[in-house]
Amino acid sequence: MELWMCLLLAGCALLSLGATQPLAINYTTDILRLAKAAHIKAYLSEDEQKPCDNFYNYVCGNWPRLHPARIKNKKTNYLEELQELFVRKSADMLKTARPGGDSSADRLLKSFFTSCYNQANDTQSALRTLLQVTDFRGGWPEIRVPSWYYYEYDWLQVIATIKRRLGIDIIIGLDVILDYKEEHMHRLKIGAPQLPLGHRRQYLDASYHLTRLRYQRSIAEKLQRYFPEQSQRWYEEVSDQVVDLEQQLAKGLPHNAALTLEQTTRQRTAAEMKAAYGSYVDVSRYLQMIFNDTMYVDLYETPEDYLSNLVDVIRLTPKMQLANYTIWRTLDTLDQARVPQNVQPGIWCVQMVRDHFPQQLESLFHRNYNNMQMINDLQSTWSDIKRVFREQLQASTDLHWMTLETRQRAIAKLDAIELQFRNHDETQLIRQTHGLRLHPDQFYPNLANVLQWRTQRQLAKLVEEPQLMDQVYKVPHYELTNNKMQIPITFLQARFFWDPAYPNAIKYGTLGVLLARQMLHGFDDVGRHYDRHGYRNNWWDPISEGSYSRRSQCFQEQYAIFEDFHGKPVHDKGLISRIVADNGALDIAYRAYVEWLKNTDETSTLYQREQLPLLDNTHNQLFYMAYAQLYCSDYPESVEMFDELPEQIRVNTALSNSEHFVNAFSCSRSDKLNARFKCALY
Ligand SMILES: *[C@@H]1O[C@H](CO)[C@@H](O)[C@H](O)[C@H]1NC(C)=O
Ligand SMILES: *[C@@H]1O[C@H](CO)[C@@H](O)[C@H](O)[C@H]1NC(C)=O
Ligand SMILES: *[C@@H]1O[C@H](CO)[C@@H](O)[C@H](O)[C@H]1NC(C)=O
Ligand SMILES: *[C@@H]1O[C@H](CO)[C@@H](O)[C@H](O)[C@H]1NC(C)=O
Known about the structure:
Collagenase (Catalytic Domain); mainly alpha; 4-stranded mixed beta sheet; 3-stranded mixed beta sheet; Neutral endopeptidase, domain 2; about 55% helix
């Protein structure tokens, strides 16, 4: 492991500091600075690359070699590293019990993690759990009581049990969704389940024949893993029956896969559906079995033809095939918890914990790695950024294109933006998991319990008021409709963006830029139509609006040449917002840095502290390097189109509009990154 990685993870054997409390480790300033320098240097281009030509390549040239996208066929980027760190630190945290220090929710997470770590690839345990949870008294795959399937097998009851116990949608899909007509309530949606191959055409069009063949083979292979003693014929027969049944079900899906939910939905009561479909597909009974109550509410039935087609499928399909299909789908869902090849079990199991207990994991992380100093530093950087923008709005020089009145309204909006740290109500999190029992040595039974717990919570939403969408972001996020800035807990990780030992140039170049970007979203094309309370409300006078359009036109012309990148088209729907934030944030964060320098005693020690070993860059240059490296990324070959402007263009174009950048690297007039006509808004 490289030195900088060790330090970020805060637990390096190399430094023989095997402490269990990561934050208590007391690295010396010199080591931290050295590690940061090595981190920056690792990504610098190894070729002769002129900063004024292509700055992005200059600082990120080596990124694709260290973080190639081709391995997982997925874009890699610098900020994603923060998530990796979160996962790796979480693995350490989940492995460590703290007797007396863990809450009941913490112990649950740790039990789940430990059981996953030890048993997630135990296929026999998955199978045993499956047979315990569900009711296949006829036996499977060896059928001990064949008559059971003919006479007693009640397919509807079996799938209702599986839905209730494991949350799996088989043959019928059921969910609680936000009502699209009245947003303040939830509604039950019933109809088609999500089929593994997707839409109707994948199942029924001749052109997808090969896809289906591959699908069938993958089913046969999985069956073989679970039932090694069965014959080749059996794998083929069962997998063939699975695909066949899904093809029958897909006949009830709409021809046009692009139709929206509203276009394919009708509203009915369970009693009306019972009248329409009779006892072959008895919706009332199904709901009764799931909710243990008679449901009188209106339901959304979607897509409209699914259940009537299902009546035919049920009538014509042997019960044994329905049973085989049901068992297979359940098994396949449990199988998805198995550790995939080439993934470390520790990493995989953190993902499992995160999937099922996202808030509890964040809370545990926060309590383990919480660093008051980081929160304070973040607050102070934020107030620096805010102050600089406020000063610009107050002075009549920089933003002279806005009228005084509009600038005053902008100040009022700016003043109202607050940081919100996503923190959780600990008691509530513990209450949520009340009654859930997990054992450190029984992964699949645990998984079944967790799935049941989740399903009950999901279904219980039907009678609850919708909460404000609790979306989790990875970086600070500006929320338009309440004029607040959300700071995710995973963002507050020691030494990634900043540390008191690092030059402040780095803090302003990374954290400062990220905060300024989000702040400006309150003042860009979309955000400027919302007021300080987050209500839609145009507070711009016509003169300022006119200037705004003219200035953003300058950017549009400047960026218009980037219709494609490396021969692939670029269609960025949020282009203007991105441009405004990119260009404005760079300038505001830099000014904030310069002001900080001015307000600090300018001694030679200060300038020494503002530089790093290994790199002979000035403090101003470090600011721009840290900024640009935030955007280092690599795209897989398979990308056909860019739906966001690629990072290289974003970084280079924003820099080319910056006089300060040109000065910091002494770019000449003819250099590419010294735009002759510089565009500016904020
Ligand atoms: C870290 O080390 C420095 C210098 O050795 C010392 O002054 C400081 O108290 C230590 N801090 C902690 C938290 O141990
Ligand atoms: C799980 O996988 C690991 C490594 O792939 C292997 O060593 C172990 O035996 C497997 N455990 C079971 C129960 O199959
Ligand atoms: C279903 O409801 C009945 C009466 O309302 C109750 O006695 C029974 O325990 C419930 N069953 C389950 C599984 O919740
Ligand atoms: C269902 O599975 C049983 C047991 O493995 C097998 O004998 C039977 O042929 C299968 N039937 C159908 C219709 O898929």
